[in-house]
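EI: anyone free to look at a 577-residue chain?
SC: sure, send it
EI:
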Amino acid sequence: MNPVNIDKYLVTAAIDFGTTYSGYAYSYHYVKDKIHVNSNWKCGSSMFKVPTAILFDDKGNFISFGHEAEDDYTGYADSNEEKDYLFFYRFKMNLYKGAEVSRDIMLPAMNGKKMKAMNVFAGAIQYLKQHLIDSINQRNAANKVHVNNVQWVLTVPAIWSDAAKHFMREATTKAGIKSDNLVIALEPECASIYCQTLPVDQLPQQINMNAVGVRYMVVDIGGGTVDITFHERQPNGKLKELYKANGDDSGGTKVDQLFEDYLSNIFSKQVIHAVKDKHPSEWLEMLREFEATKRSLHDTDGLTLVKLKPSLHEMHEEIQSTTIANAFKRGSIYHEDVKLQGKNILKIPKTDFRELIVTVTNKISELVKSLLQKPEFKDIDFIILVGGFANSCFVMDKLKETAGNIPIIRPEEAELAVVRGAVLFGWKPDKLTSRKSRRTYGIAIWRNFREGIDPENLALFDSEGVRKCDNIFDCLIKINQTVEAGETISRVYFPLNANTKSSIIDLFATVKENVAYVTDPDVFKVGSVVLDMSDISGGKNREVKVNLHLGQTEFKLDVIDVTTGNNVTAIYDFLSQ
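SC: here you go
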């Protein structure tokens, strides 16, 4: 794999595309370590990030992003025009679970209408890209940059599938960034790289971040996912991954889902569903207000006030045939210690809010605890805690309890560790000397049939009538195997038939260490590459060489017809299934 030629770029810019919030940062080639994090958004906010929210008209034309999108959508709702617009909010996690990731998956807008996910993601990246270019050029009008003068870095969770990462690459290309100018960076790796630069006053007295052989865990808790990696500092100052990335979807938005369940227990699932379905903009306002409450909650004394929206009253009266006030008076709404103040204020004990957060932090704690019990995590020196949800005092307290005597470092502005580290990664993409494979990968091949061993349903005959076995899993790399930066794994194959005019290289994966056939349980196809072999003069003796380039955040593949020199070189197309 050819290394990134960073000398040709004036700027390295990182886009942190988050579940809840998004933002960007950059630095110039002549002062790489001076990182600028944008805080100049159109809404006038001085925050470093804006909500990951985007608005389109009913023809799919982009209207606005971030706070503007939220405000515009609410404005259209006030004038009963929201049905004519497509508003998408916190949509990133659609690439994590659920349906298989493909170019054609559709995303439901808040009003139920659907749009191609590729267009939604591309629209958001396009906005962030252009906002970044405009911001740079306004700050430095004498030396303007063009999109092609920038080394772009896009952050993704380490636990995402190969297909999800490839989807983000294609969405970024659709947004106007050349694929050759783009590096996909893994979020916890970026945080780890940034924390190498932390000043001494942000570190516990006994911690030396730059010591050779120091071993630490990175726990990145964002809005959607928890991403965990394990690194060791090498003598050359680079990092080595010691265990495959782990994590799940226990991010901060899980608390929001629990809040919805909490309200459903008070007013009924039917009422809350009706508010979401018929009055999505007011539901959005409730989520925004809850997000502010969640971020500001630091103690458990007293009450939290939740403002009830008109639609909640309307839907409750329609479905329950009584007002909320009457329901509280009659005691038909029961939820311990929850009171109604006046008509529109719900008084909820802060202890209840704490329990919502603790339910999620307990899951994170269990995940961290299970990893710390593995032999690979023996003698860990410290834990680095980053991400937006990491700022919660409840998260910090629970992880301190889990970690025991292991120190925990939470850098200042922990929510910016990823985007700052992504800029540094853009300048030094070889910062990690090796990674651990998250899956076992192999290519589907054929070989001679073994009577009594191979399944009969996989038998086939070549052009000479020789019995072969199809769908053999030819293992290239095993789960948790170390992959060195720049490592290449090569294989040589031959066509099954003399008249074969194209070779399809199918890559498969599994979480199992050993499998025999690509048809085995838990083996799935992750992509294909097609090689033109229309020159059949060599018959079955035409050599096909496959080079799989590993060690970076994505696979790259060379497939070569050695006889003719025809080749395919591409980042593996994980969306072709």
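EI: Residues 117-139 form the longest helix (23 residues).
SC: 👍
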